[in-house]
Amino acid sequence: MSYRKVFKRSKGKSAAVEPTRHLFLANCGHSSGINDINDLQEALGHPHGLRECITENNFTFASFDSPEDAEACRRGLPDAGIRAEFVTKRGETHETSESWVSTTTDELPPGLTLIPDFITKEEEMKLMARVDEGDWNTSIRRRVQHFGHTFSYTSLRAEEADLTGDDIMPSYTRELVRRIATNSVEEAREFIPDQLTINEYMPGVGIAFHVDTHSAFEGPIVILSIGAGIVLEFRRPSDGKALPLWLPRRSLAIMGGESRFGWVHGIAGRKTDRVGKNSELVHRERRISLTFRQMKNSPCCCKWPVLCDTQNPSSLVLPSRVHSEERLV
């Protein structure tokens, strides 16, 4: 099929195109050895979410799972003369583009535990109020708060500090931390977090696929969702398997074992999600996540070397859309 019947480029130098899940890639076609999606994967550095492509002599149209995947690819293009711009797909509205990804699955990656209604509605309201009393950092696209030891993308390591009182964990999380250790799963029995990141996800905001640095933090990683639910997608680099999971409001997700060390996870930047067997369209609302971690800063000898920074240093790469001064997300 001709690309002209599928994709539409913006007209005029000043025409601005909002991020979509489709890219026009100039200087990237048959003449430069790009003949199929495998060639394109190699040329682009194996970007996340590349779904399909139409390749011509000097250019290629590429489609991704989400606008965030396309944007991450565009910002992380290798220095090979390739130029990228967002394009639209004929007949695809902004709404259908946002909700294009597959609906959620009930299958969990090995080692992940999801506990619904871990806190009550009343506890959620009180927790959100206390969070909003804190100082929000607005240096990145989403607002964040950090407590305890910090993690710098400059060194990709946690930075130790002498911390006391609310510098370690805010007082309003103490009962929550106690409950995690006593009422969740065996792997969290000895969990004593000393690092907390609070993220605010407004509709349309996401986070690039990543793995929490193996040598920087122990397992598990514990995430509480309040305010609204959201789709968190897991991907296994070893075979490309993807599991989009619905994290309900007030649920607790405990990433341990393979889900912690052998899969990457991320949130697509869109305003809707497809949820459940009937692919119900859910409009996103303001969501706040509290992510608890326990610092490690020692070599890792896990069973999943592909994403292990100790056993495979080349795996320790900064997501292309994140600047070096941004802290752990």
TrEMBL record:
One annotated GO biological process: demethylation
One Pfam family recorded for the sequence: 2OG-FeII_Oxy_2
One function term, GO molecular function aspect: demethylase activity
Residue ranges of every copy of the Fe2OG dioxygenase domain listed in the record: 192-296
InterPro entries referenced in this protein's UniProt entry, alphabetically: AlkB-like, AlkB-like_sf, ALKBH4, Oxoglu/Fe-dep_dioxygenase_dom
Source taxon at top rank: Eukaryota
Name of the protein in its database record: Alkylated DNA repair protein alkB 8
